[in-house]
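step=encode ok
step=design start
structure_in=
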């Protein structure tokens, strides 16, 4: 699993058209429909007034865990912020310290009380259970091996509050193989540009993409710094994902096409899955 490093500095620039608000509304709707977590009213969020919850207050402590959301692969925190603004108590985790530094600065600037933890999702380690664990923007596709993805899902199940839900999306095998595989994408902005070259490996179902980034060093001079990063993501089928969910001890609840919000089919490029904790 690759960690974003230099690319972190321009990530938000190139993702500025990503519909995080739309995703946030959709995921919040899934939580409301299938989950156990509830948003807090303004001023009620734990720690909002500098007051913790007393350890002996068992009911309050259970409510705190039930209402906690943890995001895996949060990146620079753009989606995390959307859920925080909806009143959810949320923790963001990511493997990239560079992405998390940006996320923390953004949260501070907006006065948002969000905890960010540097963690590989394959080694998830929380201090308590959480009513909801989410992962968006195809973060799980960075896990390339069946066994590692099953172990990741087992950790999710372990840290879910009883009957809590795991909501995640993934890019399908169809998308990598038939849509973006072996395609080159380029974009030019005023202060930065990128070239994104895809190479699909059929045997492993892995998409390799090489990023070449050019970032302007000074507003007054036409001097750019060039850097490159290589990332690998594996495409999965819905049936494979259902199998991993079951192998991890989670209960499969539903699958939804990310674009149409209908039942997925062979043309689905990104799919949401809702799974539920059903015992450790």
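sequence_out=
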């Amino acid at each position: 699993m690759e960690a974003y490093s230099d690319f972190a500095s321009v990530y938000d620039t190139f993702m500025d058209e990503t519909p995080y608000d739309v995703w946030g509304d959709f995921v919040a709707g899934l939580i409301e429909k299938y989950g156990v977590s509830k948003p807090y009213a303004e001023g009620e969020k734990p720690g909002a007034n500098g007051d913790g919850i007393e350890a002996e207050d068992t009911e309050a402590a259970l409510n705190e865990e039930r209402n906690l959301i943890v995001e895996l692969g949060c990146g620079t925190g753009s989606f995390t912020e959307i859920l925080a603004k909806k009143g959810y108590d949320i923790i963001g985790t990511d493997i990239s310290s560079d992405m998390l530094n940006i996320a923390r600065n953004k949260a501070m600037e907006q006065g948002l009380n969000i905890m960010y933890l540097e963690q590989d999702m394959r080694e998830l380690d929380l201090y308590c259970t959480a009513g909801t664990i989410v992962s968006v923007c195809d973060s799980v596709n960075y896990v390339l091996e069946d066994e590692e993805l099953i172990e990741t899902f087992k950790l999710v199940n372990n840290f879910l509050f009883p009957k809590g839900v795991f909501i995640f999306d993934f890019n399908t095998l169809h998308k990598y193989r038939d849509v973006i595989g072996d395609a080159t994408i380029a974009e030019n902005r005023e202060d930065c540009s990128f070239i994104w070259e895809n190479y699909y490996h059929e045997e492993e179902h892995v998409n390799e993409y090489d990023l070449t980034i050019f970032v302007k060093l000074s507003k007054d001079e036409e001097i750019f710094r060039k850097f490159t990063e290589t990332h690998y993501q594996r495409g999965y089928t819905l049936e494979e994902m259902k199998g991993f969910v079951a192998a991890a001890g989670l209960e499969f609840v539903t699958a939804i096409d990310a674009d149409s919000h209908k039942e997925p089919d062979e043309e689905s490029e990104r799919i949401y899955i809702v799974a539920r904790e059903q015992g450790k």
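step=design ok
step=annotate ok -> The radius of gyration is 19 Å.
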